Amino acid sequence: FRLALIQLHVSAVKSDNLQRACGLVREASAKGAKLVALPECFNSPYGTQYFKEYAEKIPGESTQKLSEVAKECSIYLIGGRSIPEEDGGKLYNTCTVFGPDGALLAKHRKVHLFDINVPGKIQFKESETLSPGNSFSMFDTPYCKVGLGICYDMRFAELAQIYGQKGCQLLIYPGAFNMTTGPAHWELLQRGRAVDNQLYVATVSPARDEKASYVAWGHSTVVNPWGEVIAKAGAEETVVYTDIDLKKLAEIRQQIPILSQKRCDLYGVEMKK
After folding, report:
1. For the whole prediction, is pTM greater than 0.90?
2. Is the dihedral of CA 152, 155, 159, 164 positive or negative?
3. DSSP string across 97-123
4. DSSP secondary structure letter of residue 162
5. Residues 144-171 pLDDT 10s
6. CA distance 25 to 234
7. Closest by alpha carbon to 173, among 150, 195, 200, 189?
8. Which CATH class is domain 2-255?
9. Residues acting as catalytic residues
10. Residues near 153 by Cβ (< 8 Å), separated by ≥ 6?
């Protein structure tokens, strides 16, 4: 099946972001994409100072638009981090997924908050305004089961291992790595998650805006179960297309059967809730 990653240029105007995102979703559908993903923070600038201002409840304005365009195009739509979600007085970094009938299939709240300090390069603390999610998020399609993470979640191999154990063959991480962590780790982490678990990994970033307070790396990418980069964007706004070949996935797992060779008598990773 065809996967489309929309690397959107994000402005400070929510309505403009929504309109352009929906237009690109329609374009991707017209070109045969069955599963379309938007980037983290597609609907607002990224930064702790913006989260409260742009926050919405779910369902709300933005998720209603995503539901409508998913139904209109009859596709599976991953809404990136569609909005900072407000719920019970707390804010979450939340990704929503809608099916071809417009129904909400999954809602992933970012599990690992991006609190880092690289002296002289970048300091960021999502926990100043956001609360962490506490659950895994998977959804079924006629093609395969898909697991979700958001950006920093990709650094935690255990999350991907659990998804693999639960039968996921594709992991999608809407993300917005920056100009420090992007060149160093963006592709490396994707290839690691893919080859360790013998599945496809896709990441979808906002386009780079050098004038923004937080500059995203871009380079939305798809990696196959062999660890090969099979599609990759540059820094500009674009749509990345690739065909997910589940037959190739099955062949790789047969050739190097690490999933059946794990020594579960010696070690294990488990889902607690």
Report:
1. yes
2. positive
3. EE-TTS-EEEEEEPSS--EEEETTTEE
4. H
5. 999 999 999 999 999 999 999 999 999 9
6. 19
7. 150
8. alpha beta
9. 40, 110, 151
10. 110, 111, 112, 159, 173
